[in-house]
């Protein structure tokens, strides 16, 4: 756990210092790999697509961890896998692009980079939509990857990223798939979406817990309870949809309390800026708790 936490800290620092790092993430190999199993369907497609690369990653990780004096090499391998699994775009820079755009049209265009990768619909330029989009992007680009990395090592981080990639059409220029087509069959995509929700669920709850600690506790817990009290939501097992409602309530409460010196919850840029501050505070809480767990393991 200590080495994994150190790897997370180093990778996050490198991504911050090297702004061009995300552009070197290439996923074309995985989209080509999925084409070989396009005849499979549903859970079979997901299993045949994910298991080979994850088994390979797990074997390399286990071998390196078992060789004496190879801790540094394992850390290097784990760091490379984690850096590859984060993103694929940098969240901070995407939010900056919206906040620093010179006019509404530029902001609207920049805001589309916050849209969920499996959602083709344009993202409306409203405060609630942008807050939700930013927090969902934070979960899927950063927090869920870190959660599964700390829990299962490089294999967990890579597994999460590959599941998310099953829901994304290959970017133009990265794959031979014709424009408008996807390498994931419809029922395979549905199975991948269910698996993705399952993987998002625990990380989303930990984000909510951290939001309650760093924001308005009452507003966060009330939004969480109200979302689950809805009959339609309560019937959906392992659905992380509560995260958007909680994020809106948390950001609204912070803005109304004068966080940042402005109290207008209808101001898109104010709300988005506060959402970014909220995500930063959540990250600090996560890392602090992980550090306490490591220290507890040393002294207990």
- Topology order in helix (H) and strand (E) letters: HHHHHHHHHHHHH
- Secondary-structure-derived class: mainly alpha
Count of the separate structural domains: 1
Return residue spans where pLDDT drops below 50 for at least 5 consecutive residues: 175-182
Q: Roughly what fraction of the amino acids lie in strands?
A: under 5%
Quaternary assembly: single chain
Approximate shape: globular
Cα radius of gyration in angstroms: 20 Å
Reported for the largest beta sheet, the result is: none
Average of pLDDT: 88
Question: In DSSP terms, counting alpha (H) and pi (I) runs of 4 or more, how many helices?
Answer: 13
User: How many β-strands, per DSSP?
Assistant: 0
Topology:
Blueprint lengths: L1 H16 L10 H8 L6 H25 L4 H15 L5 H10 L3 H8 L15 H26 L1 H12 L20 H29 L2 H13 L1 H4 L7 H15 L11 H32 L1
Helix pairs in contact: 1-4, 3-8, 3-9, 4-8, 5-6, 5-13, 7-8, 7-9, 7-12, 7-13, 9-10, 9-12, 9-13, 10-12, 12-13
Question: Could you write a compact summary of the structure shown?
Answer:
By secondary structure, the chain is an all-alpha fold. It has helices at 2-17, 28-35, 42-66, 71-85, 91-100, 104-111, 127-152, 154-165, 186-214, 217-229, 231-234, 242-256, 268-299. It has one domain (2-299).
Please provide a written account of the structure:
The chain is built from 13 helices and no strands. It is an all-alpha fold. The chain has one domain (2-299). The relative contact order is 0.13. Mean pLDDT is 88; it is low at 175-182.
């Amino acid at each position: 756990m200590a080495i994994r936490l150190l790897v997370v800290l180093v990778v996050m620092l490198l991504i911050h210092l090297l702004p061009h790092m995300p552009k070197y993430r290439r996923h074309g190999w995985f989209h080509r790999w999925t084409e070989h199993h396009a005849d499979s369907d549903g859970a079979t497609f997901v299993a045949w697509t994910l298991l080979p690369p994850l088994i390979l990653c797990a074997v390399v990780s286990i071998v390196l961890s078992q060789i004496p004096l190879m801790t540094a090499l394992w850390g290097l391998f784990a760091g490379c896998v984690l850096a590859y699994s984060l993103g694929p775009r940098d969240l901070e820079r995407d939010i900056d692009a919206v906040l620093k755009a010179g006019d509404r049209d530029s902001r609207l265009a920049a805001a589309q980079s916050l849209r969920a990768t499996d959602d083709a619909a344009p993202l409306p330029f409203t405060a609630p939509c942008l807050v939700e989009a930013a927090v969902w992007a934070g979960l899927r680009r950063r927090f869920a990857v870190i959660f599964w990395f700390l829990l299962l090592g490089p294999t967990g981080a890579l597994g999460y990223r590959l599941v998310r990639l099953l829901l994304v059409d290959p970017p133009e220029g990265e794959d031979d798939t014709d424009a408008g087509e996807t390498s994931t069959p419809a029922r395979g995509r549905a199975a991948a979406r269910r698996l993705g929700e399952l993987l998002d669920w625990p990380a989303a709850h930990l984000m909510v817990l951290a939001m309650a600690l760093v924001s308005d506790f009452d507003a966060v817990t009330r939004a969480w309870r109200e979302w689950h009290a809805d009959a339609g939501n309560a019937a959906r097992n392992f659905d992380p949809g509560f995260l958007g409602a909680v994020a809106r309530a948390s950001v609204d409460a912070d803005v109304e309390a004068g966080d940042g010196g402005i109290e207008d919850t209808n101001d898109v840029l104010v709300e988005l800026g506060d959402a970014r501050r909220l995500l930063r505070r959540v990250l600090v809480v996560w890392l602090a708790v992980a550090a306490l767990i490591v220290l507890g393991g040393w002294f207990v």
